[in-house]
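Re: [help] complex structure
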Amino acid sequence: MSEDLTRRTVLAVLAGGAAFLVRKANGQIVWQVNAARCINSRLGDTGVEACNLCTTECVVALSAVRAVNEYAKCGRCNICPAYFNISSAVNELGQPSEKLCPRDAIARKPIGKVDPEDPANNFYEYIIDEEKCDGCGKCVLKCKEPLGLGSITLRVRYDRCVNCNECAILRACPQNALVQLPIGQAL
Amino acid sequence: MEYRHVQVIDGKGALHGIAVDSRGQLYAAGDSGIKIFDGAGRLNARWATARPALAVAVAGDGAVYAGELGRIEIFDGAGKLLHTWRDEKLLGRVTAIGFTQDSVLAGDAADRAIRRFDRSGKFLNNIGKDNPVNGLLIPNGVVDFAVDAQGVIYAANPGKHRVERYTPGGELLGHIGRFDGIDPAGFTGCCNPTNVAIRDGIYTTEKAGPRVKAYDFSGKLLAVIATDLFDVNCKNMSIAVGSHGRVYVVDTVKAAILVFEPVTV
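Output below.
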């Protein structure tokens, strides 16, 4: 390789890196959770414990990561494994007696034409309260296929993320599930 | 009652639905078409369908019905195409087929309903749609049902954790099943059972974790036929029951059919 070509390559890399930093400084490059890498949402991993490193490692109080329910994918089930602890005893309504979320951050309400006598005869909307959610991932793991439909994933919230140069969650994440993306791809 | 695992039939490729005929031949619907296996699991015949086959059923006259996207194809026993019923609206995604004495039933997962047609393909009525949620609750995306000798339709309604009984006219007669995440007599998870078969009782499969069970017609659990033999990521495991109580279940991940027999004491 000629000296001139090497010099041009080095300059190109430096220019690319500088452009990246400028875009990052302008908020155009952001951190996001790659759901295909995160063990809580990645298909194929069953029988594992929920990973809560997004909660424990983020430098932001309560974490910048939240569970987000994509309504278009949600089954609106009566017995939602992300809402209920489906291994708890069944109550008089025929539903699990315990909720799953340790912070009670998921609310549910029947939607559409409501049958007040038979809870199984309704669709339900599951709404995550982002003021309560700390991104612990328990609901994400239970929503994953085949148990659920995978409508709940962990997402970095940009109004909370301080956009560290080196994400503290990524440092700890064994799956390298935190990635930097142009903001248009990360939304 | 106990069952033992006696055989694995390799489906080679995606498997969606299975059926057993009166001679004990096993029919499998998959992406490449229809395959027929003999009682020993040997491949006897195969033919292609126009689109991936999502369901298969064998009528009393030996005609083989294949459920697909937007259509049902009807073949003779040798694979010669006899008729195609096309209807993008009524046959959006046909994931189950069955028969009463005078009609053909098709589970349309696209509209969460069972369609009833006469033998010529003329639409007669819907089954399972007349309720507040306007259909069967199938977050798993498959309508499955079976028909008993009296023509009563047993439809899996996984979102309600029930198997519902309907008349061919669509009247709901009752149901068996309830949610329970601990008691094996119940159906667990968000939505089970996903698939159902009828013979001398009601046979069901569940997902997460995969489980095969037998009930009597009153809903009493008779047997947990299998739990740990399937890939844990299996779902929508089609089930068929043949003579002598042989139970055939699809492992949708391994693309194989597992065969179980009741243990005679």
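Chain A has a mean pLDDT of 91.
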